[in-house]
Amino acid sequence: MKKTINFILGVAALLVAVACGSDRSEILKVYNWSDYIGEDVISDFEAWYKEQTGESIQVVYQTFDINETMLSKIEKGHEDYDVVCPSDYIIERMLNNGLLLPLDLKALPDSINYIEQNASPYIQKMFREINPEIDANDYSVAYMWGTTGIIYNPKYVTDEEAATWNVMRNPKFKDKLLVKDAARDVYGPVLIYLKQQELKDSLVTLQELMSDSSDESLAAVESFLREAKDNVLGWEADFGKDQMTKELGVVSINWSGDAVWAIEEAAELGVELRYVVPEEGSTVWFDGWVIPKYAHNVKAATYFIDFMCRKDIAIRNMDGTGYVSANGAYEVLESQIDEEYDPINLSYFFGEGADSICVNPTLYPDLAVIERCALEHDWGEDTDKLIEMWARVKGDNASSFTYVIIIAAAAIIAFAIYRAAASRKKKASRKAGRK
Fold first, then answer.
1. CA–CA separation, 282 vs 191, rounded Å?
2. Residue range 146-281+380-397, CATH number
3. pLDDT tens string 372-421
């Protein structure tokens, strides 16, 4: 409902602006993930933009749930969004296909150039790896980031069992495994697990594995997933966190941002959950702001992206979404310091002086964890092979949870048909009585 309301309000705002004769330079169209921004940040930006430029701006804010939906609207529909927030591999695809405009940071006064002031060295390094020939930092600014790992219930799963991706195939967890319905985020970690010997022998690097779309590797991952399928309680887009808090699942392949939410929610119910990035390694992910090729208000878009990088706004967005800001300002780190945790090394992200910080390691992983993680890549034309493999695995796996859902749905449909039939009989009877 909230998503629908956001969309309607966005469209309504645009229609009102057009009806009132507003110039397109006074409208900024933002396309972002659902529930992915702090409260009142949009209205605060509108006021800030007026203060900085002397010009009025009205933000038309719309949301999406799937990267490919957003991409299709721009690539095929030539939608004139001014700012969008795709994930790393889509940023790569848009960059490779010439769908992004370069960022003109010189258009920002030095005093408010928060993009450069608060950039994290780690984020900048990772964005340079998106495309070795084109520096993605010139076209995009990271917004949120995290890792892919395992949420587990220590009541049923030991730390040792959860420390490896092979936990997915452990028969102990039959019908207790939840897998994120995201082929790319599962493929990468499983391939890293399967290629451990090659990695140890330096025959391949983590980053090279992220571009490995060979038939051999696809077959190996598919075989692994088929072995794990008896354990799968469900392939989930969002319900996995809830299943874990209710102890219906005990192992969940998930993102660190969701792990934070699940751990906090579970604690309120008296359930302990933990999160770990397995010892073999995993993937890091990013969502970032970009200006699409068909944008109409590049100036306001640049100011908007800059505003998102302001320290206090980054903190508010973290608090409002539960995800971790890619902002490298030390004040952002200070807002997350908690003496409850052991100190970890975050110098890779925040620079010197951040090598012993007490912070939730699910939010900010220690350097030792990051060193065994890699950035996912777009497969280009080979993407269909990944989608087809994923469909085969899921199609062959009807877990007990799936059967419960199917049976429940069938019962509801049958009951609805029965009620409809009974209603028709009553109406027919009444009609017959009136004749």
1. 9
2. 3.40.190.10
3. 999 999 999 999 999 999 999 999 544 444 444 444 444 444 444 444 44
Dihedral pair phi/psi, residue 41, rounded to 5°: -65, -40
- Give the residue among 280, 378, 302 at the shortest CA–CA distance from 109: 302
Cα(73)–Cα(432) distance, integer angstroms: 54
- CB-based contacts of 167, cutoff 8 Å, min separation 6: 150, 152, 157, 161, 173, 251, 278
The whole-model pTM stands at 0.84
Distances (CA, A) of 79 to 36, 39, 92, 140, 427: 21, 26, 19, 19, 50
Closest CA to 369 of 360, 378, 361: 361
55: amino acid identity, one letter: E
| Rounded Cα gap, residues 22 and 140, in angstroms | 28
Residue 61 CA to residue 11 CA, distance in Å, equals: 8
The answer to whether the CB of 258 falls within 8 A of the CB of 236 is no
Rg, the chain, Cα only: 24
Taking the chain, what is the end-to-end CA distance rounded to the nearest angstrom? Answer: 46
Report the SS3 class of residue 213.
Answer: coil
Q: Where are the alpha helices (DSSP H) in 139-254?
A: 159-162, 183-194, 196-200, 206-209, 215-228, 240-245
- State yes or no: pLDDT of 329 exceeds 60: yes
Fold match flag (2-138+287-335 vs 146-281+380-397): yes
What residues contact 434, with CB distance under 8 A and at least 6 apart? none
Between CA 28 and CA 82 the distance in angstroms is 6
- Predicted confidence at residue 396, as pLDDT, reads 57
Pick among 3.40.190.10, 3.50.50.60, 3.40.50.720, 3.40.50.880: CATH of 2-138+287-335: 3.40.190.10
β partners of residue 254: 149
Structure-token pair, residue 259: 């792990």
Q: Write down the domain spans for the chain.
A: 2-138+287-335, 146-281+380-397, 338-371
Which of 394, 384, 385 lies closest to 217 in space, CA to CA? 385
Dump pLDDT digits (tens) for 177-203: 999 999 999 999 999 999 999 999 999
CA distances from 360 to 315, 364, 387 (A): 15, 6, 34
Here the tokens at position 143 are 């917004």
